[in-house]
User: Fold this.
Amino acid sequence: MRKLMNIPEEGVDAQVLLEEMQAKKKDDADWRQGKVWSLVYHLSDEHTDLLKKAYASFFAENFLNPMAFVSLKQMETEIVEMCADMLHGDGNVVGTMTSGGTESIMMAMYAYRQRARTHKPWVRRPEVVGPASLHPAFRKAADYFNIKLVEAPLKDDFTVDVRAMKRKIGRNTIALAASAPQYPQGVVDPIEEIAAIARQKKLPFHVDCCIGGFMLPWVEKLGFSIPKFDFRVDGVTSISADVHKYGYSAKGASVVLYKNIDYLKYQFYVSTVWLGGIYVSPAMQGTKSGGSIAAAWAAMKHLGKNGYMAMAKETMEVTRQVIERIGAIPELEIMGKPHMSLVSYRSCDPDVDIFVVADQMEERGWHHDRLQHPNGIHVTVTAHHAGILDQYFSDLIEVVAYVKSHPELVGGNAAMYGMLAKIPQALGKMGQLGVRKVIEKMYHPDFDARDMNKITESSGDPVMALFEKYGNDVLDWMNKLDATKVLIVDSAKEQIKQRSRGLLGRK
Ligand SMILES: Cc1ncc(COP(=O)(O)O)c(C=O)c1O
Assistant:
């Protein structure tokens, strides 16, 4: 049995703790040097300082009760209005703040499910139809709220096949969804065409602008050709946009906007029977720190339109260089035609396994997201990356040459996103069950996260070392359970069947 850590009998000196926390960071991804191609949006130390001060000044205030903290309600209203204006909404557009893109998407899906209970009372298992490239937050929402997510196949340019999407709409469809842009290849779906179908079928339509909401408006103003994606498009009924991404706010800030209150009202949760009194909540969280609202408000007001334009201009210049320099490496090619600053590339040389390239780059300290179906490397470009481009491309060119001259190197780690940054492909291929088992391990009483540092010191790679240590348990578990293997194979076969049906565009 593991020994639980106790709260110390006597409190530890604040300075000692602060130093200990700094020391804990030593094995974290090195975003300061620009070696992380996602996860962190850093503008400048001066800007971060403002965010910290704004956050700290509303650190204690609790948005659970906006009557008690009117200041927070006022700031939320102003953030929502500024976002609605940025995304070309009119005076009817309303919305709420949430903790991030996932919550915004989940709230829109929840609102449409609740709405369908009134508008389509015959629907037992509501369905939302959208591209196969939708962020997993949609699938998460579908699982949480008992909705079926019906995925439409993509075209060669990674945008959704609108005709196939239309064919998937049925009696149980309660809403449509698409992205501007989708995360993996950074392309904007044909929002206008989908909106026309939404109007024709009288369906609500959510556009996921979580990552694009604070870039596309400025990129468009800079003269880049961007398909119409926001409230200008008749038929778009809701949009999610994250202030904590290209809005350059502190983490914990996103908005979900609706065309009018007739949609938003279905998002609210009300309980009138509790002993503690009547409970009303606009989104998922109960207690909510005022800090993230204050920092978002300060970020938007401080940067202003001109600040965002300047940031977008620099970011697009760095993106241009990234695309050009990847294009100059004969073994690599850009996937699709990115509309803004999300770029992905893959190998076009059979001797170069792109995941091995990613592994080798990681050994040199570069942190990427990996894509699957097809395999590739994703980079979220920010202006902060300008200073490290030379180093990045000199490493990438060397790594590609090395991988090419070592064709025996195949496999690499699986494409993972989010919590488990990477796992060996063998486990990834085992599908849901394999990955689930790994997460269970990480939260099991036998797992000690404090070991991770020691593991790192011995092997230099915390996640791989983790798998050296725990991965075998998982594989053993799988090998022992023949029945599980059958299940995995069956579910993999079923997935392949569904996918190929989807790709053929049949229902
Ligand atoms: C297109 C898109 N939607 C949704 C999300 C989810 O946002 P979050 O991680 O803030 O929950 C992301 C995150 O990158 C995204 O790129």
About this structure: The first strand starts at residue 94 and ends at 98. The pocket of pyridoxal-5'-phosphate is lined by residues 100-102, 105, 135, 137, 179, 182-183, 208, 210-211, 242 (CB under 6 Å).
